[in-house]
Each structure stands twice: as structure tokens, then as C-alpha cells.
Amino acid sequence: MNKPVFERATLQDGESANVISENIEQLKTIFAEAFGEGGVDFDTLRQLLGDAGVIDEGEEKYGLNWHGKKKARQIALTPSTGTLLPCPDDSVDWEKTQNLFIEGDNLEVLKLLQKSYAGKIKMIYIDPPYNTGKEFIYPDRFQENLDTYLKYTGQVDDEGMKFSSNTETSGRKHTNWLNMMYPRLKLARSLLTEDGIIFISIDDNEHANLKIICDDIFGQENFMGEVCRATGQTTGQDSGGLGSSFDYILVYSKSVGFDLCGLPLNDKDLTRFENEDERGKFAYDQMRKTGSNDRREDRPKLYYPVTNPDGEDVYPIAPAGYESRWRFEKKAYDRLLKDNFILWKKTKRDDKEVWWPYVKYYLEGRTKRPSPLWNDLDGNKKAARDVRALFDGKKVFDFPKPIPMIERCIQIAPNSSPDDIILDFFAGSATTAHAVMLLNAKDSGNRRHISIQLPEPVEEDSEAFSAGFKTISEISRERITRAAKAIKKDYPHFDGDLGYKVFKLSSSNIKAWNPDRADLEETLISHQEHLVEGRSEQDILFELLLKRGIDLAVPIESKTVIEKNIYSIGYGAVFACLHETISHDEVEGIAHAILKWHEELKPASDTHVFFRDSAFSGDVSKTNMAAILEQNGITHVRSL
């Protein structure tokens, strides 16, 4: 039987990563014995996971359950059939920038980013809705599918969709919030690098629930701690309680075995390093263990004599007179003494001067461990003033987070690098993007930022609306633009990336097959063209990037052959010719042009080539195109 001339791309090719299929394939790799002709043998899988007994499904288990949890988990596993449409006119430095701003429902967008960014995001910071019970920005049924978003943004008609006030009287205050957060966090985890980390700001309303669902999604073993942050203002006193001057940041890593990075020393820290020798500036601390577990009986091997400059033995005796202990064993002391890390100084004991040993700590390369209490940073009022200053004194956003707080999160991420990618999928006022650009300017970094924001309408009686902003996403983009200009003014020698590419969530460029039984003939005629009418070649190209798992910031190059554009995406990972007509006489010229370009680029991975299915005059032309390409090593040829 003859091989089909082209394998045609379908709507399923237009879907985001199929998480279920990928999970099954990974399980097969690890637990091959648990798979047979009938699929997964769950009893065998349980045994392989160390469960020797029979699990009682009715047995109560520790965890957080709520109405809709199973559906929320399933929603995270359901692929998106949307795409991201490029918006060069709304972007800044479109051709060169590697930063992204994506307008859309973050659930759908996170799904669409799976193939291109899985395992590539070093740090995620989010400041989700705090669920005060007074407002909730997501429409009812919002998390269910792309159609809901398209209706919400006016891309398709709707009878009108009500917003959920999410008041206490709805009886679903926590349920709605948990159903919104759970699938988004599930998807976010898969985007992190193995040493990646997520910071989540939250207040008392959902703090306890968020901790439990994060333990479920990230694993209790990956809980890195909790930051208690001073906000600089007290809230909640009108409820009759204590009120609060703090909010919290929950910190989770993707995997175990990675430590937080230290923070740069501040001016107060540096005052300790006032001594200097041939190695450089140093501070010192006494060699005797202080605090808890400081007695000889706690660590007997750490009680031994050392010789002072006068040749006398010195033992670790505490000021109270009891036998204490040193910080390390004798071998370590001898090595430190030999390498000149031990400092002897005279100190007063019982009204007389005696020699006492100290250990030197040098300044070079030294950092300090981050504290769980962050009360030394700008508060919310300062953050609000900073945003107002950017917008000519207008209050365009409520409750922005401080830039130094985000900078600190970036700095302490495990293996923090100046080339990291940072994601914020509740972008809001775009503080994260601002912080990334500012930190790059300070340390000449090349960090990239990806921001995702729902086009939530602003109130018509607000200063933001009066200033010309219709949605929060418009404010977000303008914040990034104005922040970039301010950074360039304050750091004139910084030549790093201060731009951003804008994309907007929409339906796929590939038509879905939805037969109309009442007029099947008309349905067949309309489906002869498989691509959505009115979409540009650029729209289709960026969907190909998403579906092939290519970074949205990679270059797209083009050449003109026989008055038709040929595109190379990702240095030859994908080639495409999307012209509406390719005649029989043009096939050979286009095929050889692709082959020549392919040879020049020498892509490291398999190359995929795409054409419009309707462009060819017939199957003979398709067969010739496929044959020429396949005979020269390009076997993945598809039509759209």
C-alpha cells in the first residue's frame, strides 16, 4: 500500500502537551513490569512502589479535600486547543527581545507553554488573588475551557457571563479559590528546572489551604520554608481581631538536594570585616562552641587542649566555669592553624588577661543565609508610591509588591544565575518584570522574564480608566515600558534586554472538525481549507513553535523563493512555506531551496517541514514535494 503523500496536522496537533500520555510514558520507562496488553496493572505498580498490603480505599487519609478537587486535577491534565497570537505592534523591540508578555487566562497559557518551557524556568513568583471574600476576578466556569475565555474577552459571541463575587454567602469561598489555584500550580511545577523554585505570596485567608495543596503538588520534602514579610501597614483590625502587619511567602523547590543561595552582605554586615591580612579583610568568632549543646559531654571528642602563643595549654572552659567544647575536632584545628585561619587574642578572664583562640572568616565571596523574617525591605506603601511615580502620579494599580522583595527572591534561588528565566503568571502590576530588568542592570545579568496576565477590565470610575487603561494587562505592559525607560536613564551604560514580545491567547489556527449534521455538505466545503480564515503566516508560525516545543524567543528567518516566503524557525528545527498556492512547476524549486538552507544551518535535531494542505494543485505535487525532501534526509513533512 502506498504511503500517504503528507501526514496532515489536525486539531490534536494544535493541542498543548498531553500531560497524561507523557506521564504514562515516563512510568513505563521506570516501571515496565506494571504495563501489559491491558494497560496499567495498578496492583503491580503499588507493589513496585513499596505497598505490600491492600489499600482500603475507604480509609481516611491526611490531606485537603474539597468539592471539585478531582475535576481540578483533571483540568490540569486536559490539553489546550488554543494558541498564542503574536502582537508585534504592542511589543517593544520585537525582533531582538527574549522577554515575553502574554495576555490571557493563565491556565490555558500555562498549558500552551508546556512543550516549549518544561524544565526551563528557574524561578516562579506569583501573587495570586488573596480571596478576601469580597471579590474574585475569574468568571464562573472560567477554568473549564478555552471557549469560556474567548467569550470573556469578546472573541466570540455570548449571552453574557456573570462574574462571581465569591462572597462569604456563596458558601464556596474557599472551594472556588482552591479550584482556581490547584491546576495552575500543577502546571507550574512542570515548567521548573530540577533546581527550580516557586515563591507564592499569600495572606491569612488561604494561607493554611495553600500550604496543604502545595505539599500535595510539590511534596512536603520540597518545602523550603516560609517568609514572614512586613507589609508596612496594618490591616484587619476592623474585624475585632488583632489585625496583621505581615503577609507570607511560601517557598517550594521542584526537587530535593538544592540549597538556597546566600544574600549579599549589607553595610551593617560589612562593619564586622574591619581586620585585614595578606588574604584580605576578615571577621572572627571564638573557637569555643556557644549556645545549646556546648558542654563537654555533648561532644566529648571536641574537648582537647590547644597551645597558646606562650606555649601553654588552653581548654574550652566556659565563662561560668564548666567544661565546654570547641567547634571542631583536633585534626581540623591543626589544619586551620597551619593555614593561618586561627587568631589568638588576649581577653579578660577572672580579672586577668588570657590568650583565647578565634577563627577567621574572610570577606571575599561571603554571603549570608536568608532570614525567614523580611522586615528590612520596602513595604507596600513605598511600592505604591514607586508605581505612581512611574505613571505621573496617577494611582493605576492597587497593592503592588515591592521591587526589592522580588529581587531578593531571584537572588536566593538555588544556583541563581544571571541567565535564569523568571515567570510570573499573575503579573498584575508587572513588578516581577520590573525587578528582573533592574537586577540585570545592577549586575549586568541576562535574566529573562515571562509575564502572564488576564485582560481583567478596570473599574470605569478608577484613575486607571481615566488615564486611558481599559484592562489590567494594559497597565502591566505600560509598567514594563516605563520601567525600562527609567532603568535606561538610571543605568545609561546598560545595554541589556529592556523589551518584550506580546502574545494574546486565542483559538488555534487549525480548524476543528465539528460536522453540522443539518448541512453536512456545507461543512465539508468549508473544511477544504484547514486553517482559520484571516490568520497571518506569522500567527501560524508561532503556533508551530508552541507545538514543536520551541522557545517563543528564537529567531524566525525568512527567504523569498519564486516570490514565496520560506521560513526557518529555531535554526532549522522547522521550515515552513505557507503561501496559499504552490503550482506543480514551483515544487522542485521550493524543495531544493529548503534543502540548501537546511544544509547551511545543520540543525542538531530532526527537521519538520510544513505546507498549507490547500496550496497544492493536486496529490501529484504533494507527492513530488515529499519525495524530494525525503530522498535528501528530511522525512517529517506535514500539511496544515
In short:
The chain has 640 residues and is α/β, with parallel strands linked by helices. It has 19 helices and 24 strands. Helix content is 30%, strand content 20%.
Gap between N and C termini: 23 Å
The CATH topology name of the largest domain reads Rossmann fold
Summed up, the helix count is: 19
What does the average pLDDT come to?
A: 87
State the low-pLDDT regions, or none.
139-143, 519-527
Give the overall shape.
elongated
Could you state the CATH homologous superfamily of the largest domain?
Vaccinia Virus protein VP39
Number of strands: 24
State the helicity in percent bands.
Answer: 25-40%
| Largest sheet entry | 10 strands, mixed
Strand content: 15-25%
Q: Structural class, from secondary structure content?
A: alpha/beta
CATH architecture of the largest domain: 3-Layer(aba) Sandwich
Q: Cα-atom Rg, whole angstroms?
A: 31 Å
Overall tally of structural domains? 3
The strand order across the widest sheet is 4-19-5-18-17-6-7-9-8-16
GO molecular function: DNA binding; N-methyltransferase activity; site-specific DNA-methyltransferase (adenine-specific) activity
Catalytic activity: a 2'-deoxyadenosine in DNA + S-adenosyl-L-methionine = an N(6)-methyl-2'-deoxyadenosine in DNA + S-adenosyl-L-homocysteine + H(+)
EC number: 2.1.1.72
Family: Belongs to the N(4)/N(6)-methyltransferase family.
Question: In terms of topology, how is this protein built?
Answer:
Blueprint: E1 7-8, H1 19-30, E2 35-36, E3 39-40, H2 42-48, H3 69-77, E4 82-86, E5 100-103, H4 106-112, H5 114-117, E6 121-126, H6 146-152, H7 173-191, E7 192-202, H8 207-218, E8 223-235, E9 244-253, H9 267-270, E10 275-277, E11 280-286, E12 306-307, E13 313-314, H10 330-338, E14 342-349, E15 352-362, E16 373-374, H11 380-390, H12 403-412, E17 421-424, H13 431-443, E18 448-453, H14 463-466, H15 472-490, E19 501-507, H16 520-526, H17 537-548, E20 556-561, E21 564-569, E22 574-577, H18 587-601, E23 608-611, H19 619-631, E24 636-639
Parallel strand pairs: 1-24, 5-18, 5-19, 6-7, 6-17, 8-16, 17-18, 22-23, 23-24
Antiparallel strand pairs: 2-3, 4-19, 7-9, 8-9, 10-11, 11-15, 12-13, 14-15, 20-21, 21-22
Helix pairs in contact: 3-7, 4-7, 7-8, 12-13, 13-15, 18-19
